[in-house]
Amino acid sequence: MRNLLNFLIKYNYWFLFVLLEVTSFALLFRFNHYQGSTFFTSSNVVAGDIYKLRGSVTSYFYLKSANEDLLDRNMLLEQQISNLRKELQERGVDSLEVDSLKDTPLKGINFIKANVIDNSLTKVDNYVTLDKGSDDGIRRDMGVVDRNGVVGIVYMTSRKYSLVISLLHSKSNISCKLLRSGYFGPLKWEAGDSRYAFLNDLPRHAKFSLGDTLVTSGYSEIFPSGIMVGTVDHIGNSKDGLSYQLKIRLATDFGKLSSVRVIPMSFKKEHMLLKQIENKQQ
Amino acid sequence: MIIVFLRRIEWFIALALLQVLVLNNVHIAGYATPFLYIYLIVKMSSGVSRNELVLWGFFLGLIIDVFSNTPGMNAAATTFIAFIRPYLLRLFSPRDISDEIVPAIKIIGVSPFIKYVVTCVLFHHASLLLIDSFSFFEFSTLLIKIGSSTLLTVVCVMCIEGFKK
Q: What CA–CA distances, in Å, run from A262 to A92, A143, B68, B96?
């Protein structure tokens, strides 16, 4: 007995070691289910404040390229508009129809603007931290977009910060469709390159070509339909050979995310309401 | 005693901030990320009790985890390295030193010190990156990541050692 006690006292660090390892792994495996707690993530107050401080310094480095990006886009859009207007005038389309063309998928939605204060690219599960939280109206499962395209879905919120599951996450799954042909499938990211993701489950008879635009389908109720996601970069076969798997070049540059917009729930509520009315009418 | 403790806390905060604000954003060629924060564990004096060492490791890892949204990952790896460190130190330090030492080039010699650092870093990175890649297991990528990150961290540790002289 005495020997046993001596043995236990001598090797007590083993117990501490095992205890701490078990704690670590419990944290690791519970994180995915433990929705309530933002304590152990970068959306807690201290980590958030430190990252915000860093963001306020580093965001200036991206201003120039963000500006150039916007200018380029502006030029492109203006050119397109003037071309289209010319075309329409030549064809003599009446003005009412032209006005109805101004309806974009995002019209009438009051975005919540937020800044990215932390972001990662190289891990298997990447998260984005935003400097706005539940006090600003951000809730779980809201969609997040930036000026180029889809970014991700809100996962947790604290009062002042929120954690977003980036599109670059092993569990991210966004329903998308090809703008031209309308075929849809889930968009998955398969680790590795942050510029590409994969669109799965496209039927064999679907027609599409390289460079086709991919947009959100609007079936998931998190994103309205028609938000830019990316373009088709490569056409391949799925692992079982029964369907196509498209390699998609993402429109969003995750390497320089800075300001993003969160799509508020009111859009979702409206969507739900419409669905209910639809159901009743049937 | 208190002063030694405060010095460690200073290093703790400095290394944690350096890691989460700067080094976590370094991905050379998409693979190599230095995890310099384990410098604290590597440089702990041999007189520190095993229990204390393991606790330091756990909390250091946990702080890094909180900032990088990987609860438990760094904590598990750093606890592990803190646990095996006394064995590694005994393996690489010369036999005739028996009293308390802080691992350094001057004390245990250049080649044993480098071997000691490389082994510590390798064990830490291997366990950390192995846990990280649970869901997407690709052996060659994992090996490249472990190899390149280990190299980078060891270079960083040697730089700090060089400057401290």
A: 39, 6, 22, 64
> How far does B110 lie from chain A, in Å, by closest CA?
30
* List of domains in chain B: 2-164 (1.10.1760)
Q: Nearest C-alpha of chain A: how many angstroms from B157? A: 23
Question: For residue A24, what is the nearest residue in chain B, using CA coordinates?
Answer: B72
Using the Cβ of A51 and the Cβ atoms of chain B, whether some distance falls under 8 Å is answered with yes
CB A50 to CB B54 under 8 A? no
A87 in a domain, yes or no? yes
The pTM assigned to this predicted structure is: 0.68
One digit per residue, pLDDT tens: chain A, 282 residues?
788 888 877 778 888 888 888 888 888 777 655 444 566 667 777 777 888 888 777 777 777 788 888 888 888 888 888 888 888 777 776 655 555 555 555 666 778 888 888 888 877 788 898 888 888 888 888 889 888 888 999 988 888 889 999 988 888 888 888 888 888 888 888 877 888 888 888 888 888 888 888 888 877 778 888 888 888 888 888 777 788 888 889 988 888 888 888 888 765 566 666 767 777 776
Residue A281 lies in a domain: no
Give the nearest chain B residue to A123 (CA atoms): B132
Return phi, psi of residue B20, to 5°: -80, -30
- Interface size A-B, in CB pairs within 8 Å, comes to 97
The verdict on residue A27 lying in a domain is: no
For residue A181, the domain's CATH number is 2.40.10.350
* Residue B140 sits at the chain A interface (C-beta within 8 Å): no
Question: Hey, what are A33's tokens?
Answer: 């289910």
- Check if the beta carbon of residue B33 is closer than 8 Å to that of residue B152: yes
For residue A98, give its domain range.
Answer: 34-268
DSSP secondary structure, B112-139, as one string: HHHHHHHHHHHHHHHHHHHHHTSSS--H
Residues linked to residue A145 through DSSP beta bridges, in sequence order: A150, A261
The CA distance from A20 to A14, in Å, is 10
Q: How many domains does chain A have?
A: 1
Of B30, B54, B134, the CB nearest to A122: B30
Residue A266 contacts B, CB cutoff 8 Å: no
Residue window 62-101, chain B: list those with CB within 8 Å of chain A.
62, 65-73, 75-76, 79-80, 83
Is the CB of A13 less than 8 angstroms away from the CB of B58? no
Q: Do B72 and A25 touch (CB under 8 A)?
A: yes
